[in-house]
């Protein structure tokens, strides 16, 4: 018999209601004779670590549970069942149909040889397992079509985990028994929604190398988190898979996609795929787990998000080497969902510790706006040679697509950027600026303003003139030169690039707030504020600088844009700071740890203020809306870093 302990009293009442409505009550009592009266219960803090145990009964399989038609109430204080272990199965692991190869034959420990058996007969799960599954179906049907269904997953999980424990107590893990269990779970009604899957609800393999099979359950039901059951342990219980946030990361439908050896270590690894819909999105979270002495270890974790365009992923095995491809629609500085996008394909392979990115491939340009986005990535990274080549392609070989109807002068923008690069690199920009002026419109107005200031005492003067430019002024005559959303006029003006010109003779160790104000102010360039500090302990200073831009605002502070200043290849390079409101105020630097700091800003709001933090790891700027911790900035698992999920153009994409 079972003695089951549930931690949540409310959940008990819910389960009892559904059991009684079906005319079935489980007798929960201790086995008298042959069973000790254990009072062990799962810890109330079981979700505090990544090796958390799920709230299910603990069963030692020598005692067979039985269902009786009695009306005794379930008591929350009943002890969890612990009994003597039964012998575990030595049968061949069962592999999901979707796995690319069979489970590995080599193990790190000796494995018992399967015994010969007569031809298998159809497996009957038995009334006890069926009863738990029926209770699950009844609970799902009761909440179907209501908002309560979104919160019912944990209750269904208790019932399903109990059904699995009962299954393991009465069946060996054979191909036939696993097929019967999969079929039974697949007959459950959908919870909230259902999608076609590429895996199984349950599968079995030796995943920890102890010579015993383990059962892995994905369940394929919304909000029901996956679990694994270790038949080689002293007590049998449902155990969780570790993720960054177990409450949210499996908030979808999870299937077991693969139980094959993906790391060439001779032990089966587990690939789980969780499908979750959103507003105009569909996310497939692809995760791979290997095993060590502490249990499962997450070594791959990428969300594949279909949003602007369909995304995809693929598991490939070639010559014993496993590689995982992910593909997504790649975005740039000027973008909206409705425009055409190229595809970014990233290939990951095992390096002995993690699956790491070994290749990044961007499909050919699909539109002129896509060509501009590739050039912009190089421009803002300070890679001016490649940027000029990419802008030139926009002029000479534009890729025509459905976005050609946008009233945006991509060629004029490309010519303007080439002129700005000439100023930044100390070459004559007059010739190209004359072409810009001929475009007319806003582009022509910007070009005329810069042209009128070239040939003066320094290359900073065109940026000084742009800072005072009224973009609403009458533009020069021309048939082009128009810009509109998604092109940002602040990025087109590129006022932050003035810092590269003005500070080019300032050594990295001489940078300070006062230096920025003095050097640029003496040339007539208006800096509103600046914060300077070493954010990543590399003995090189970074800065965030607020630069005023001309606007027609009457009430409140002037419009100002934020720019991030850093050293690259022994020179200063400026790029746009992540999106910050133009009324934000610099608020100093916060030390997060002895080696990490963050710039702090305050963004005023209607009756409230919002704090913003900017950190830098030497390669990436990160934006935070609460003060980050060192664990946030430097997570132990690389797949918990924010940039791992980015699908944006980088310098070098061509």
Give me the secondary-structure topology.
Layout: H1 9-21, H2 127-143, H3 153-170, H4 175-186, E1 202-205, E2 214-217, E3 227-230, E4 238-240, H5 246-249, E5 253-258, E6 270-278, E7 281-292, E8 295-306, E9 312-318, E10 321-329, E11 343-350, E12 355-362, H6 368-380, H7 384-396, H8 410-424, H9 430-438, H10 441-453, H11 461-467, H12 489-493, H13 498-502, H14 513-521, E13 527-533, E14 542-548, E15 560-568, E16 571-576, E17 585-593, E18 596-604, E19 609-616, E20 621-624, H15 630-633
Antiparallel strand pairs: 1-2, 2-3, 3-4, 5-6, 6-7, 7-8, 9-10, 10-11, 11-12, 13-14, 14-15, 15-16, 17-18, 18-19, 19-20
Helix pairs in contact: 2-3, 6-7, 6-8, 7-8, 8-9, 9-10, 10-11
A few lines on this structure:
With 654 residues, this protein is α+β, with helices and mostly antiparallel strands. Helix content is 24%, strand content 22%. A hairpin with a 2-residue loop joins strand 15 and strand 16 (571-576).
Protein described:
- The chain has 654 residues and is an alpha+beta fold.
- It has three domains: 9-111 and 120-362, no CATH class; 393-492, no CATH class; 506-645, no CATH class.
- Helices cover 24% and strands 22% of the residues.
- It has helices at 9-21, 127-143, 153-170, 175-186, 246-249, 368-380, 384-396, 410-424, 430-438, 441-453, 461-467, 489-493, 498-502, 513-521, 630-633, and strands at residues 202-205, 214-217, 227-230, 238-240, 253-258, 270-278, 281-292, 295-306, 312-318, 321-329, 343-350, 355-362, 527-533, 542-548, 560-568, 571-576, 585-593, 596-604, 609-616, 621-624.
- A four-stranded antiparallel β-sheet has the order 1-2-3-4, covered by helices on one side. Strands 5-6-7-8 form a four-stranded antiparallel β-sheet, with no helix packed on it. A four-stranded antiparallel β-sheet has the order 9-10-11-12, with no helix packed on it.
- Helix 6 (368-380) runs antiparallel to helix 7 and helix 10 (441-453) packs across helix 11.
- Mean pLDDT is 81; it is low at 1-112.
């Amino acid at each position: 018999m079972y003695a089951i302990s549930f931690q949540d009293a409310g959940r008990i009442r819910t389960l009892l209601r559904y059991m009684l409505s079906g005319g079935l009550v489980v007798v929960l009592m201790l086995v008298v004779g042959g069973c000790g009266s254990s009072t062990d219960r799962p810890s109330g803090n079981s979700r505090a670590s990544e090796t958390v145990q799920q709230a299910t009964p603990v069963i030692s399989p020598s005692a067979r549970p039985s269902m009786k038609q009695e009306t005794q109430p379930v008591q929350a204080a009943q002890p969890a069942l612990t009994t003597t272990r039964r012998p575990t199965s030595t049968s061949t692991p069962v592999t999901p149909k979707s796995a690319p190869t069979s489970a590995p034959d080599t193990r790190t420990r000796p494995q018992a040889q399967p015994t010969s058996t007569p031809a298998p007969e159809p497996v009957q799960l038995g009334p006890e397992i069926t009863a738990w599954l029926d209770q699950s179906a009844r609970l799902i049907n009761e909440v179907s079509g209501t908002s309560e269904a979104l919160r019912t997953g944990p209750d269904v999980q208790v019932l399903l985990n109990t059904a699995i424990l009962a299954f393991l107590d009465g069946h060996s893990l054979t191909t036939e028994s696993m097929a019967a269990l999969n079929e039974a779970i697949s007959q459950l009604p959908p919870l909230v929604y259902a999608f076609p899957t590429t895996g199984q609800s349950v599968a079995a393999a030796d995943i920890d190398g102890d010579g015993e099979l383990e059962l892995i359950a994905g369940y394929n039901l919304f909000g029901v988190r996956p679990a694994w059951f270790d038949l080689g342990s002293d007590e049998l219980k449902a155990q969780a898979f570790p993720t960054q946030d177990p409450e949210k990361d499996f908030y979808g439908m999870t299937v077991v996609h693969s139980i094959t050896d993906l790391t060439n270590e001779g032990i089966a690894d587990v690939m789980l795929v969780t499908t979750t819909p959103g507003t105009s999105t569909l996310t497939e979270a692809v995760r791979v787990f290997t095993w060590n002495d502490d249990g499962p270890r997450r070594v791959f974790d990428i969300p594949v998000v279909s949003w602007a365009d369909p995304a995809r992923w693929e598991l490939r095995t070639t010559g014993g080497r496993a590689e995982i491809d992910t593909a997504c629609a790649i975005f740039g500085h000027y973008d909206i969902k409705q425009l055409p996008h190229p595809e970014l394909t990233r290939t990951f392979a095992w390096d002995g510790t993690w699956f790491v990115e070994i290749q990044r491939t961007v499909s050919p340009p699909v539109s002129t706006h896509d060509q501009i986005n590739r050039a912009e990535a190089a421009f803002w990274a300070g890679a001016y040679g490649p940027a000029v080549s990419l802008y030139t392609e926009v002029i000479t070989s534009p890729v025509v697509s459905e976005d050609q109807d946008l009233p945006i002068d991509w060629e004029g923008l490309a010519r303007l950027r080439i002129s700005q690069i000439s100023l930044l690199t100390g070459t004559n920009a007059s010739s190209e600026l004359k072409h810009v002026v001929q475009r007319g419109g806003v582009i022509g107005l910007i070009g005329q303003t810069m042209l009128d200031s070239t040939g003066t005492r320094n290359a900073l003067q065109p940026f000084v003139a742009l800072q005072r430019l009224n973009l609403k002024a009458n533009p020069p005559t021309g048939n082009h030169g128009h810009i509109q959303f998604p092109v940002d006029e602040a990025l087109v003006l590129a006022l932050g690039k003035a810092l590269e010109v003005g500070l080019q003779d300032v050594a990295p160790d001489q940078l300070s707030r006062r230096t920025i104000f003095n050097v640029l102010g003496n040339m007539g360039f208006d800096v509103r504020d600046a914060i300077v500090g070493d954010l990543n302990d590399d003995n090189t200073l970074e800065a965030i600088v607020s630069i005023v831009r001309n606007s027609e605002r009457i009430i409140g502070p002037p419009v100002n844009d934020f720019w991030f200043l850093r050293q690259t290849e022994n020179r200063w390079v400026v790029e746009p700071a992540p999106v910050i409101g133009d009324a934000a105020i610099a608020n100093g630097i916060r030390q997060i740890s002895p080696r990490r700091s963050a710039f702090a800003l305050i963004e005023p709001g209607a009756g409230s203020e919002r704090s913003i933090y900017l950190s830098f790891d030497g390669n990436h700027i990160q934006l935070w809306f609460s003060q980050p911790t060192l664990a946030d900035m430097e997570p132990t698992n690389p797949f918990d870093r924010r940039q791992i999920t980015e699908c944006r153009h980088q310098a070098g994409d061509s």
